[in-house]
Write a structure and sequence with these properties.
Number of domains: 1
Order of helices and strands: HHEEEEEEHEEHHEE
Number of strands: 10
CATH topology: Atu2299-like
Strand content: 15-25%
Structural class: alpha+beta
Largest sheet: 6 strands, antiparallel
Shape: globular
């Protein structure tokens, strides 16, 4: 499948990367809705190793208008928003394109809003030069806004690399993932702290199209 100038990878490869990372997170009993950092760091590692592109995990604030609904990732203070440890988003930037591997589970995030919002599971890759200038400018469905915070990035990356378990997560995903048309295993065995091996399947979530 040919790759458009607006895409870093094809939808089948995007879905594989998402299902690998999401599968490992589900096995570790983590909350994927609060794991954008894992999707971006592991996703960037996979892109660099298997797709030979220079991928940078980026941290800050982000907002998307999806199917008519705005989803904003930031910490809210009164009438303002800012990027903070308890309120931020993380995505990947490759040659002027933002790749968000957490996007397929925005459906689950939106379902927990008040009132609940119905979204599909879709791929998200967006050109940075087409981003809106502010959250208020997200007029059309599929529009996006990013505000990077390099200081927060340094702090969160330093915290991430201090944990050996995180390095293990990255290695698991790098070994499991295979780009199309290679065959990818539907599951892998992952050992736990008690010396037992768990069979970890790919995420059951599938993707239908792109935003």
């Amino acid at each position: 499948m040919a790759i458009s100038k607006d895409l870093v990878i094809t939808l089948p490869d995007y879905e594989r990367i998402f299902r690998v990372i999401h599968g490992v997170l589900l096995n570790e009993k983590g909350d994927p809705l609060r794991a954008c950092m894992y999707f971006s760091i592991i996703g960037a590692s996979i892109l660099e190793k298997h797709h030979r592109v220079k991928a940078e995990p980026v941290f800050g604030m982000a907002a998307y208008r999806l199917d008519g609904n705005v989803i904003c990732f930031a910490e809210r203070e009164s009438q303002t928003i800012r990027a903070a440890v308890n309120g931020f988003h993380s995505w990947i930037e490759v040659d002027g394109i933002a790749v968000d591997f957490q996007a397929p589970i925005f459906k689950d995030f939106a379902a927990k809003q008040e009132p609940p919002v119905a979204l599909a599971r879709r791929m998200l890759q967006k050109r940075l030069d087409q981003a809106s200038s502010s959250v208020d400018d997200l007029a059309a469905s599929g529009t996006h806004w990013y505000s990077r915070d390099d200081q927060l990035r340094s702090e969160l990356l330093a915290s991430f690399v201090q944990k050996q378990a995180n390095a293990d997560f990255v290695d698991m995903c790098l070994q499991w993932y295979k780009p199309t048309p290679k065959r990818i295993s539907e599951s892998i065995l992952i050992g736990n702290q008690h010396g037992h091996a768990n069979k970890v399947p790919l995420s059951p979530s599938r993707i239908s199209g792109a935003w």
